[in-house]
Design brief:
The chain has 330 residues and is of the alpha/beta class. The chain has 9 helices and 10 strands. The strands form 3 sheets. Strands 1-5-7-8 form a 4-stranded mixed sheet, sandwiched between helices. It is globular. The mean pLDDT is 89.
């Protein structure tokens, strides 16, 4: 199954033939069945598509994303007839700066810290055998994350000023986490530490691209479940910022992108700068993660794609009045 169709060659035209996507370049023509595609990602400039394809794609709930060369989604085409229920939207807007909002934001940070600790401990087994000095340091950083999670668990927050307190915990945890990731990467490639927009080094470029893929999947899940992507609870609302998408992404970054990157770096000998072949190979590995399975809060196994959808459904129900909020730690 193709799931994600990635187009990044200038001069490419995408059209429709029956229920198939036709991809034409100056050198070749390929066809892909829409039934096997979940999203179409158009990266860079010089790519065009037909309105017939757009119509058929939204009809079959295939999301079309436009990304810059750094992998950042700057526009998406989705159907306006998704499940945007009035009750969910009103509940989401009404929850702003309430105890419910503070509770959701706190739970997101708790799960993020738990997932960060889990990732470091997962790779720690290998470090103990081959890099015992690193293993000791990574173990200490894992313990720091565990301690921060325990402190956060017993900390209460007031509805109107919880953001800064939560980001204090999140910031300290992220500092320990990325120091641990740097030790795990070792000397394979240079990693100057986590950098977001505008990063030029290989590791951060791949991370940013992987997060862009995750962004598009979370956005699709939010829209399908009637939630507004721009009204978040952990990340503050800001013009042009999909704050709720960023909130939900915090739960899944470690398992879907970070772990994939570390495995990718261990298995490949890479140049220090990003090239299109490396970008394509890594993006395919990230996409494959969505088809892998994990255990959800109901103790049943689902694909990661389904878990994202179930998690968003649970958050929507919580905002509408369900007292139980169970976020998954993959």
């Amino acid at each position: 199954m193709h799931e994600t169709l990635l187009i990044d060659k200038p001069g490419t035209f995408l059209g429709k033939k029956s229920r198939r996507v036709v991809v034409k370049t100056p050198d070749s023509t390929e066809e892909f069945p829409l039934l096997k595609i979940k999203e179409i990602n158009l990266v860079g400039t010089g790519i065009s598509l037909s309105d017939d394809l757009v119509y058929q794609a939204v009809k079959q709930e295939v999301q079309i994303n436009f990304q810059d060369r750094l992998g950042r989604v700057y526009a998406s085409i989705v159907s306006p007839f998704l499940n945007q229920t009035v009750a969910t939207v009103r509940a989401q807007i009404g929850a702003e700066d309430t105890e419910k909002a503070a509770g959701l934001a706190k739970e997101i940070v708790l799960v993020k810290i738990a997932n960060q600790e889990k990732l470091l401990r997962y790779f720690l087994k290998h470090q103990r055998v081959y890099y015992p000095t690193n293993a000791e340091k990574i173990g200490e950083l894992s313990n720091t994350l565990d301690s921060l999670g325990e402190q956060l668990l017993v900390t209460s927050f007031k509805p109107l000023n919880y953001h800064n307190q939560l980001f204090s915990f999140e910031g300290r945890a992220s500092d320990s986490y990325w120091r641990g990731v740097k030790l795990l990467i070792g000397g394979k490639v240079d990693f100057p530490g986590r950098k977001g927009r505008g990063a030029k080094d290989l590791v951060n470029s791949l991370l940013n691209y992987g997060y862009a893929i995750l962004y598009s999947r979370v956005l699709a899940a939010l829209l399908a479940n009637g939630l507004l992507p721009f009204a978040g609870f952990l990340h503050k609302d800001r013009s042009g910022k999909s704050s709720l998408v960023l909130d939900i992404m915090e739960i899944f970054r470690q398992k879907i992108v970070d772990e994939t990157l570390l495995i990718f770096l261990n298995k490949k000998k890479l140049e220090p700068t990003l090239d299109q072949n490396t970008l394509f190979a890594f993006s395919q590995k990230v996409v494959e993660r969505f088809s892998s399975t994990g255990r959800f809060v109901d103790n049943k196994n689902y694909t990661v794609e389904k878990i994202i959808s179930l998690q968003v459904q649970g958050i929507a129900a919580y905002l509408r009045g369900n007292k139980n909020l169970n976020l998954v730690s993959l």
